[in-house]
Amino acid sequence: MNVTYEALERASHSHGDGFWLLDRTIVRANLRCFLEAFRWAGWRDVSLGWSFKTCWIPQVVQVALEEGAFPEVVSRHEVELALAMGAAGHQLIFNGPLKSSEDLERVHSLGGVVHLDAAHEVDAALQIASANPGRLHRVGLRANIDLGLPDRGRFGLDAEAGELQREAPRLRRATNIHIEGLHVHISGARRPEQFEARARKLIGLADEIGGGVRYLDLGGGFAGTVPAALRSQMAVPPATVAEYARAIVGAMRERWPSGDGPTLILEPGMALVADAMTFAARVGSVKSIGAKRHAIVGASVYTVKPTLHTLDMPFTVFRPPHRRAEQLPTVVSGYTCMEIDVLSRANLERLDIG
What we know:
The chain has eleven helices and 15 strands. It has about 350 residues and is α/β, with parallel strands linked by helices. β3, α4 and β4 form a beta-alpha-beta unit.
């Protein structure tokens, strides 16, 4: 992304004093590099699921669809949004904990895959299939598994108690239902060894229920590319895609040494977008309070770090040609009326209005 002060000034005429910049070439490169890491690790049949709840920016979705990602949706609204953005109905992966029978029917009518999250959804799927005997109904089963975390969460069929294993035969007795795959997504389990554990659990479940599932969907939670200025502030550096690939593919190749097992579906989401987006903010006010110099900009912590972490955000200063760079420590703050709205306390550069 070639950014200059002049380009930002022109953009501000249309978008105001704070706006996002997106580089689609980085998104596309990230998508390809992520997949290639898993192929280099030894698993050729790997695909991406693109989470609409995570990033539904049309320009990003377009790139993801062009690169072959499956649209992963969690509501009827997202189903229709994906279709409006050009997604093919048969490529939909429909997740989510609360899906009505009408929602299930809509996605089945399009030929998409519905991930069943609870026993009553299995009942609904069986009823829909019975009412439409001439149509194939593709489903996946979302598994709730124990990875040793304090809380297992509320999503999926309880595989540890045998619920998923009991529901699978019910579905298989319907001749027009096919269990396409198994799915898991666990918030907070982001380390490579935890993704390996996800894979091993799903591999075991696939063997247990039989029937030759076509894919294992390990969900999301991957770390993305982190700038050095942020990485240096972290107690534990985030994992790389190569580390994830080695861990997951190791488990897959242990079960299928020749690599001829099911498709591996991964949902990296913002891990592939974060470094492709930059927030541009004009300095709107500069003041000195006591011994501190403050610059207030057209951004806030809720814009650029909504989790309110305490890390100083890296940034680049763009100046008009007549101003030269100087050292003058300045606290960079946001435009809200809250004292916590501080973007950086470590900035050493002089900042001026404009």
